[in-house]
Amino acid sequence: MTINEDDYYEILGVNCECNDKQLKSAFRKLAMQYHPDHNSSKEAEQKFKKICEAYEVLKNPEKRAAYNQFYHETFKDNHKTFTSSKSQDNIGLISPLKKIAFFAIALILYVGAPILYAGICRLEELNFNLNKAMIVEWFITGFIIITVMSVPINLLWRFKLKISAYLFAIMTASLVILIPWYANW
Questions:
Q1: What pLDDT shows up at residue 144?
Q2: Is the dihedral of CA 116, 122, 123, 125 positive or negative?
Q3: Where are the transmembrane segments (predicted)?
Q4: Which of 8, 17, 57, 93 lies at a C-alpha separation of 20 to 30 Å from 180?
Q5: Residue 2 pLDDT level (bands cut at 50, 70, 90)
Q6: What is the helix (H) or strand (E) element at residue 145, kind and residue range?
Q7: How far apart are CA 182 and CA 185, in angstroms?
């Protein structure tokens, strides 16, 4: 019986119903056997990386549930005996798509690179907790959208005048636009 290099349960040598204690003991046993300090071959290094990757996914209950739902069940179906029938010709195409869906985040709308904005605040604005008007522009699939936002300065002062990676939702009439905004004050 050959070990499949993509099935995390087979890499660790446990079944899919194992508990955390069994998973941890199997990981430690294999990690000691294939650790680069104990085994200097290139195959051992690659095997150790796969063991660590498998353990990182399976030790987290949320990742493990997603793995069991999307990848492990599909993997079992993928290794059926192939015949020349048309119904089984597409089985090999389903597995990579579900694997990509599990390991990657799908972006619905491509948003361009972040833009850094520099703002100048006077001391009076910082002392009196005023709002600062700011022009924000962002690129969404070839369109340039410009809007004016009001940013509270006392919030900026508390965070050492730096704001990074906030997601603002601007509601205009019935239109909701999500803006990734990177600002450097």
A1: 58
A2: negative
A3: 100-118, 138-157, 164-183
A4: 57
A5: very low
A6: strand 143-152
A7: 10
**Which token pair is 141?**
């699939």
Handedness of CA 157, 159, 164, 168 (dihedral sign): negative
87-90 long-range contacts, Cβ below 8 Å, gap at least 24? none
Q: Report DSSP state, residue 86.
A: G
Q: Is the pLDDT of residue 184 over 50?
A: no
Whether residue 150 contacts residue 131, with contact meaning beta carbons closer than 8 Å, is answered with yes
CA dist 137 and 55 (Å) reads 43
Q: Which string of b and e fits 44-54 if b means at least 16 CB within 10 Å?
A: eeebbebbbeb
Judge whether residue 93 has pLDDT over 70. Answer: no
DSSP letters of 7-64?
-HHHHHT--TT--HHHHHHHHHHHHHHH-TTT--SHHHHHHHHHHHHHHHHHHSHHHH
CB atoms within 10 A of CB 34: 20
Beta-carbon contacts of residue 136 (< 8 Å; ≥ 6 apart): 117, 146, 147, 148, 149, 179, 181
Whether the pTM exceeds 0.90: the reply is: no
Q: Which two tokens stand for residue 143?
A: 């369109």
pLDDT recorded at residue 169: 36
